[in-house]
Specification:
Distance between the termini: 27 Å
Keywords: 4Fe-4S, DNA damage, DNA repair, Hydrolase, Iron, Iron-sulfur, Metal-binding
Helix content: 25-40%
CATH topology: Uracil-DNA Glycosylase, subunit E
Oligomer: single chain
Low-confidence stretches: none
Bound molecules: uracil
InterPro entries: UDG_Type-4/5 (IPR051536), UdgB-like (IPR044147), Uracil-DNA_glycosylase-like (IPR005122), Uracil-DNA_glycosylase-like_sf (IPR036895)
Protein name: Type-5 uracil-DNA glycosylase
Strand content: 5-15%
Organism: Rhizomicrobium electricum
Pfam family, one: UDG
CATH class: Alpha Beta
Order of helices and strands: HEHHEEEHEHEEHH
Shape: globular
Number of strands: 7
Number of domains: 1
Mean pLDDT: 97
Length: 210
């Protein structure tokens, strides 16, 4: 069993207080650290930033119900990394194939912005996840926070492996592929187009499966 944060994790006081507020306001939401989705024997790990308030924090599955999830799951389905139908619900029956999804920070942060302390505190869970994946060949980091946290987890220097969309760094047995985050902001502003994201998912799959 991979250590997951407990539902009432209090490592980050600000995030725990925000969760408490949200639990009051939205008692039907998941309102906890969102667990990893997918199997530990996968060759590809997708690392996002953190749950969205009314997306993954509501549904309890990474990217599920989030704007970013519409694009991510569409591409995973297109590239055969998921199977079934994505219906924005954790019980939609969608299965991941050779891929697993987690977040650099497991709890929803205010304004989608985790603090450096929170990224660091949550890294123990990312580290446990990576260590528990014996077949891991590639990591697709969505955004700079995820990229940097993966570098810190793997103990490599960020100055040597800077975040860049489409970069693929061979780090020992794992290739780190990085992408702009597939957020609503990045897609609405054209920072990340669907074609760019399609290409980077394809690149990550190739690195994982070769
Ligand atoms: N939902 C997640 O679970 N992670 C993100 O990075 C964005 C939305």
């Amino acid at each position: 069993m991979i250590p997951e944060p407990p539902h009432d994790c209090r490592l980050c006081p600000r995030l725990a207080a925000f969760r408490d507020e949200n639990a009051n306001e939205y008692p039907d939401f998941f309102n906890g650290p969102v667990p990893t989705f997918g199997a530990a024997d996968a060759r590809l790990l997708v690392v996002g930033l953190a749950p969205g308030l009314k997306g993954a924090n509501r549904t309890g599955r990474p990217f599920t119900g989030d704007w970013a999830g519409d694009l991510l799951y569409k591409m995973l389905l297109k590239h055969g990394l998921a199977n079934g139908h994505y219906d924005e619900r954790p019980d939609d029956g969608l299965k991941l194939c050779g891929c697993t999804i987690t977040n650099a920070v497991r709890c929803v942060p205010p304004e989608n912005k985790p603090l450096p302390f929170e990224i660091k505190a949550c890294r123990r869970f990312l580290s446990a996840q990576i260590s528990a994946m014996p077949n891991l060949r590639a990591i697709l980091a969505l955004g700079k926070v995820a990229h940097d946290s993966v570098c810190d987890t793997l103990g490599v220097r960020k100055s040597q492996y800077p975040f860049k969309h489409g970069a693929a760094y061979k780090l020992d047995t794992v290739t780190l592929v990085s992408s702009y985050h597939c957020s609503r902001y990045n897609t609405n502003t054209g920072v990340l187009t669907e074609a760019m994201f399609d290409a980077v998912v394809k690149q990550a799959k190739k690195a994982a499966m070769s």
